[in-house]
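Predict both folds.
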Amino acid sequence: MRTRRRWSAADVPDRTGTTAVVTGASSGIGLHLAQELARHGAHVVLAVRDPDRGVAAAARIQSRVPSAQLTVRRLDLSRLASVRAGAEELRDRFPRIHLLVNNAGVMWTDRARTPDGHELQFATNHLGHFALTGLLLDSLRAAPGARVVTISSYLHRLGRIDFSDLHGERRYSRYRAYNQSKLANLMFALELHHRLAESGAELASLAAHPGLTATGLGRDFPAPVRRLGSPLAPLFLQPAAAGMLPGLRAATDPGARGGEFYGPLGVTETRGAPGLVRPGGAAVDPRARRRLWEESEHLTGVRLRP
């Protein structure tokens, strides 16, 4: 019996004439996603917190893909004012957006509050992307076959949404806060799919996770973790170019459908070829997803109506 070939970036169809917005595209998974989308003809918007790093990332992509069409836009997901301003710029410049990849994130940060009063990891990883998606919804609806792809983590399986202490005010654990935020990413993607399907919208919502991947997220790790992990990292972490493949497949595979979740197919989903994986139990709880949606609307002031 013939074995099916592994899906790779070579399977991405032509994206000429499409516009893709990738958050956190200045490094890691986001940078590689932006590069592959541009290689296949998309006009890619690098939505980044630091415009200087975004310009450097664009130059790096251009050196590898001379034909790349790239735009850099400032977008700080930890500040709702920045999300609103960035979304307004994007709507004005791009009335049709064919792909939004909610990729940017922070991991295992010290306790910190955003200017809006939210816990930093929950705000950056989830609330900022929730608001951005809602604010760009008209541009996404206007593009035939558009998709929203939200990047979660295999650690969502360890997450729990603590509705009584979303911002870690009573007790804070950098690890618990991260797991909660990545579970929220997946719950949002699945609930968005459910609401889009109910409304009959053509827009699709999918999710992906990169397994264990070497990215810039390690900069926020506590010093003892960095010292212990650095020598062992090559044994456990796959390169960012491999980690971005599940997200790229969710974003571009013609056979992918709304509500699907892509990740590495290896043991424990930490590495391997990109394919369909199953979300953890908490992510498929419809009551919890609805409650998270309502809380997110309240905290962001963005009423997301697919």
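Second protein follows, with its predicted structure tokens after the sequence.
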Amino acid sequence: MDSLPPWRPLLRAALQREGRSSSSRWLQLATVASDGTPRVRSLVFRGWSAPAVLDLFTDGRSEKASELRHLPAAEICWLLPRARSQFRLRSRRCQPPSAELLKQRQHHWQNLTPSARALWGWPEPGIPLELQAAFPQELDDTTPMPSHFELLSFEVHQVELLELGGQPHQRRRWCSSGSWSEELLNP
């Protein structure tokens, strides 16, 4: 297994400083829409599938899924207020071979709670609301994984960390080009 990039222990320590706050798993994903305008959404961090590959989930019928199929470049911003740290991860959506992807999706689907799984039983996101539409509260363990349950894996190639704890703030950047090189930056 590859060793961890040098910024991963710093991120782990910042997450630990956040404590048990559920918001510590929320991050913002920036994509580019087909008309060239930026889009930002909050998603839930789901784990690491490799030392520099971050996993998120989305509804494959959503605009973000379509945008990432068209242009797989993205930036993830992870603000950790108690740690007074902001991580910006430049990345590119990547996909393992289809057999491996299906296995990973099945694994993640089965590990979701019934209430978390329920979101994929809701109507298509972003279309006009039908007042009679069903929005299930839970989908039990026997519910088959829907085709629109999508795993978003992002291979990180650049990280900027802004530490807001002192004056002046500390800022640094790591770039992946065979190895992770660190550069100190003005805040």
